[in-house]
Amino acid sequence: MKRNFSVNLLFLVVLNLLIKPIYVFGIEVGIQNTVGPAEYGLYYAMFNFTFLFNVVLDMGINNFQKIKVAEDNLMGIRNMTTLLPLKAVLSLLYFAVTIGAALIIGFEGRYWFFIVVLMFNHVLSAFLLLLRANISGLQLFFRDSIVSVIDRGILILAIGYLLWFSHLPFHIEYLAILQTAAYIIAIITALLITPAASRSFSFQLDIGKMRSMIRATWPYALLILLMTAYNKLDGVMLERLAQDGLVEAGIYAQAYRIIDAGNSFAFLYAGMLLPIFSRLISTNKSDDLRNMIDQGARFLVIPAGLASVLMVYKAEWFMDLLYTSSVVESANAFQWLMGSFLFICMGYVFGTYLTASNQLAAMNWIAFAAVIVNITLNVALIPNLGAHGAALASFSSLLIMALAQIVLVYRSVSIRLFQWFWRGLVCWISLAITGYAINQVNLSDLSAIGLLIAAAIVLYVLIGLKRSDLKTAIPS
After folding, report:
1. Going by C-beta distance under 8 Å and a sequence separation of 6 or more, which residues neighbour residue 322?
2. Successive 10-residue mean pLDDT values, the chain, 476 residues
């Protein structure tokens, strides 16, 4: 199990390192530098707004299906008979809820173009994630990794051409439209890449079965609603509460972009962990489960902490490297958001275990507390601090959530859980001391960053990893 996980994780990392950085730092940064913070802030705020109601599309179905397929492949695939028509009904409900909320808030003019197109994109994304839940539940991680980057690959080619080779001016509306085409192609690919025996889906509109399915998945849906709230409210609240809402939303989007790039990988990592945890729990393999939790933390949380320390030291340099405006403001928010990224990664390991072990009631209470803290701090901080205040709110709420999840896992599993923690703590403190020492020497920013990266790699290999991790990462 550890070898299977390690080898597939290695493939996932390589594939995503080829595609995701090009999209995030080439395409998204190129778009924002071309159209400016206010224009991109409009897209960012509306993306977050339409995403807030994504729980209506999902209703916890994707995680539920991934777990069921991992536990019993045949029965899990049979669920698709009910899930496909249920997704169609939920899509109509999603349109109604989102449009109703937009009318109540009072969005006007160009806002509606983005609301309509992005709603449709979220529906396509929901169907794509359902198909990927089947692939991942079958533990076909290589195939799932390929599907995970197809839409980004298409956008790199299409938007890259428009930005750098076309003589026509680029408008932010192009991004939303091209995302629609990319999702459609990715869905077709996901269907083709699914094993033939597992894609024989029938379409049966059975209200009784739909109700039973929703009763089974509603705890997952509540968890997704709460997690979406504390992840996406920041952009919407900035647009509504800050003195110059669209500009502040654009500044926050600049600061969040590197975190978003790391988060996309961490999300895929959690997608691999969920079916593995579910299979180990269902087969009662306690020792393997403990090893996977500890290894999961070493592979994700420790590197995330090293990256956070490194980028906090040189936040302004990274922002200046990427953007042409609002560099200092973005750097202030970026430092706090990098701390948030560490807590996000903790949640992707320990929260994933809690989800797989069906401890959803506790997870929902933790997420609810995080949302309350996040909203309260946003209301208090955004009017005066703008994007910087939203970053502080995110840091505080995610810290509470991560610590609560770790304590809950520690109490529910008899595990020497904190082997990874002590290794990580030594790595993080050592890198922080190294960064402080480098700052006392008169070096160029590029040289200092090179030394910090080298130190982070050495610390991770020598201290963060176990010798057995290196062995299992090599295919037999």
Report:
1. 25, 29, 254, 257
2. 57 70 85 87 89 78 67 65 80 93 89 94 89 74 78 91 88 93 92 71 64 71 69 79 85 85 77 79 76 84 92 88 85 91 90 84 86 90 91 91 89 70 91 89 86 93 76 46
Buried b / exposed e over 137-148, threshold 16 CB at 10 Å, is bbbbbebbbbbb
121 burial class (0-12, 13-18, 19+ CB within 10 angstroms)?
A: buried
Helix (H) or strand (E) holding 460: none
Residue whose entry in the numeric block shows the structure tokens 């973005």: 330
DSSP state of 27: I
Q: What angle separates helix 207-241 from helix 80-105, to the nearest 10 degrees?
A: 30
As a dihedral over the C-alpha atoms of residue 351, residue 356, residue 362, residue 367, rounded to 10 degrees, the angle is: 40
Taking CA atoms, 203 is separated from 90, 121, 430, in Å, by 15, 22, 57
**Alpha-carbon torsion (188, 192, 194, 197), positive or negative:** positive
pLDDT score of 474: 43
Residue 196, both tokens: 């033939």
pTM (two decimals): 0.71
DSSP conformation letters of 384-451: HHTHHHHHHHHHHHHHHHHHHHHHHHHHHS-S-TTHHHHHHHHHHHHHHHHHHHHHTS---HHHHHHH
Burial 355-392 (b: 16+ CB within 10 A, else e): bbbebbeebbebbbbbbebbbebbeebbeebbbbbbbb
Closest CA to 53 of 118, 133, 111, 129: 118
Distances from the Cα of 241 to the Cα of 50, 172, 227, 378, 384, angstroms: 18, 23, 21, 9, 9
pLDDT for the residue 475: 42
296: nearest Cα among 415, 124, 450: 415
- Report the alpha-carbon distance of residue 139 to residue 145 in Å, rounded: 11
**What token pair was written down for 387?**
């994007």
Nearest CA among 230, 252, 231, 248 for reference residue 239: 248
pLDDT of 109: 83
Q: Please tell me the predicted confidence (pLDDT) of residue 132.
A: 81
Q: At 187, which amino acid appears?
A: I
